[in-house]
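To illustrate the input format used throughout this study, we show a single complete record. The first block contains the structure-token representation of the backbone; no residue identities are included at this stage. The design step must infer an amino acid for every position from geometry alone.
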């Protein structure tokens, strides 16, 4: 697995998260990365050392980033989707703009929760999200909710079976 740096930003260009990841799979349209416990994390909330396993799926043509998270002992925690701009990556960096809306499905729960609507509204007003972007964000929420409802990988609990060195099929 090749090392990369993940850099997510907010709409105004400020830092959201920055941390090291390892490339798991790369195609022209999709990049999958893994971050292990012990990674230094820099964020708008401060700096710390990560304690969790995180598998992330980035798309060049989709308005979201998917995450599968386990605790430090590989106990499943949740499936998480950031509504975002499309993602860009090169040889050493993967990046996107986080647009605040998140969909979360805790392990063992069938309901998918929409989170941070208040943050989305605050940032929409503060940073002047254009109306086409606002509509695209809500369309992405509906698209992701539908994919969770269909239950096909990677929007399903079978993703929790993944471990470093194993393959992903979807």
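Output of the design step:
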């Amino acid at each position: 697995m090749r090392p990369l740096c993940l850099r997510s930003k907010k709409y105004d260009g400020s830092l959201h998260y920055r941390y090291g990841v390892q490339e798991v799979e790369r195609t022209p349209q999709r990049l999958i990365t893994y971050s292990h416990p012990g990674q230094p994390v820099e964020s708008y909330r401060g700096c710390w050392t990560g304690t969790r396993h995180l598998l992330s799926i980035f798309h060049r043509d989709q308005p979201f980033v998917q995450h599968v998270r386990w605790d430090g002992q590989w106990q499943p925690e949740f499936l998480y989707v950031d509504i975002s701009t499309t993602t860009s990556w090169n040889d050493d960096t993967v990046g996107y703009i986080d647009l605040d809306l998140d969909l979360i499905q805790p392990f063992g729960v069938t309901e998918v929760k929409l989170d941070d609507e208040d943050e989305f509204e605050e940032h929409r007003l503060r940073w002047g999200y254009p109306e086409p972007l606002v509509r695209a964000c809500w369309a992405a929420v509906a698209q992701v909710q539908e994919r969770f409802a269909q239950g096909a990988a990677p929007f399903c609990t079978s993703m929790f079976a993944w471990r470093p060195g194993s393959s992903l099929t979807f």
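Structural context for interpreting the output: The longest strand covers residues 93-106. The mean pLDDT is 96.
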